[in-house]
Structure prediction request, 201 residues.
Amino acid sequence: MKKSIGIIGAGNIGKTVAGHFAKAGFPVLISNSQDPKTLSETIAFLGQDAKAVTPAEAAKADIVILALPRSEVPNLSGLIDWNGRIVVDATNHFITYAPDFQVADLGDLASSQVVQQHLSGAHIVKAFNTIFFKILEQDPHVGKGNRVLFVSGDDQNAKEVVSQAITEIGFAPVDLGSLAVGSKFQQAKGALATLNFIKIG
Ligand SMILES: NC(=O)c1ccc[n+]([C@@H]2O[C@H](COP(=O)([O-])OP(=O)(O)OC[C@H]3O[C@@H](n4cnc5c(N)ncnc54)[C@H](OP(=O)(O)O)[C@@H]3O)[C@@H](O)[C@H]2O)c1
Prediction:
């Protein structure tokens, strides 16, 4: 049976990621900051395997995907008991957008390590954050290859569960190691941010 996918944030990235999971037959629970009824058009687009819910309901799915502004993550701390939950951090720690794209000063910590601090006990996997949504929404099968999605995390089981789901929606997961090391390459201003790789074979 396919894992349930809970998505917190129903904008560009949330809808794009939801689209891939819904198409592959995963039960998708998607939420925004308002009444779930405001997501009726999104649900019509995603189809019968998707449901509009509150963030707290989305947070109880097998795999929870953070697709909201990074500045909103501290507000999720008390949403549920995060202990042991598998949480995909698709956020980027921008504090301003075009034209200057400044990022928060996090000292030596990776952005996902700070997310980890806010969601106590959650198993954070960094993924889905490196590619612009207009590219991410395209078919992940490209020529004889598959579009790469990088994954980083400190819990091996969580990383394997997320990587399996990524494979099932047609992308090629590439494990970069821990949050302290791998996710820094992925995050905004990191060496892999915005790059679009295709894995052949
Ligand atoms: N856009 C990209 O190409 C891209 C690529 C990689 C990563 N990212 C990252 O992905 C995240 C989302 O970006 P986006 O472009 O999808 O933003 P967006 O289009 O502005 O969508 C943000 C979504 O988050 C929801 N939201 C805000 N606060 C919330 C809260 N407290 N609880 C639940 N939902 C909340 C908003 O709901 P309402 O509509 O109700 O306000 C909206 O649905 C950001 O961290 C961004 O850096 C974006």
Remarks:
- The radius of gyration is 16 Å.
- The pocket of NAP is lined by residues 8-14, 31-34, 55, 67-70, 72, 75, 90-92, 94, 129, 132-133 (CB under 6 Å).
